[in-house]
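WARN  no MSA supplied for this record, continuing single-sequence
INFO  ligand: guanosine-5'-monophosphate
INFO  echoing inputs
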Amino acid sequence: MGSLVILSGPSGSGKTSIAREVCKRIGEDKTMFSISSTTRLPRKGEKDGIDYYFLTKEEFLEDIEKGYFLEWAEVHGNYYGTSIKPIESAIKEGKIVFLDIDVQGFESVRKIYPNFITSVFVTTKNKQILIDRLKNRGTETEETLRIRLINALNEMKKIDEYDFLLINDIFEDSVEKLEAIAKVSLIKADKQNLEQFIKEWNETKSN
Ligand code: 5GP
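INFO  complex generated
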């Protein structure tokens, strides 16, 4: 049995880059970075099937109907969702699965797997650094930047609900920290079937 590591945090906090680097270090055969579906338009350089599965709103709504999503949410006016199947099989194969999802998504997944998930909130040292990163990325208009900053502050208010806070200041340090958390997530996941474990533990007969 593998584990599920949830990463949330403002866009531009660097969570995707950190997680992708951790996957490389632990090994692509032992990890999986879940690719979400979205109705957001691709940014320059983003590729379908690598960064996201880019869907139309109609396609997305159809996938909701078909029950394809473990969770889905509306973020910054677009839909985002996590497909169930690839995640379930990766967990069965013993992999550490990373989900990059917003706070709403985290709250949904936590209800489904309360004892199984390990959650990490990733953010920058302060707001100005986030603004600079988003501006440097060159993907935001004044309006989308404004929306993302409001959303960032709202998300920050939920930090307390996460197992870990990762302040992404020096990339290398953040990678090391997430690697450690990811390895521990496999141990934390042992708490998943507690009732079953206690029942079996109690039924063992002495010789
Ligand atoms: P971006 O548009 O910057 O790629 O992502 C915007 C936000 O959507 C980020 O906070 C990201 O974590 C979140 N997000 C990405 N994929 C999913 C998903 O499948 N489900 C949910 N709930 N949020 C997602």
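Residues 8, 11, 36, 40, 71, 73, 75, 80-82, 100-102, 104-105 surround guanosine-5'-monophosphate (CB under 6 Å).
INFO  checksum written, moving to next record
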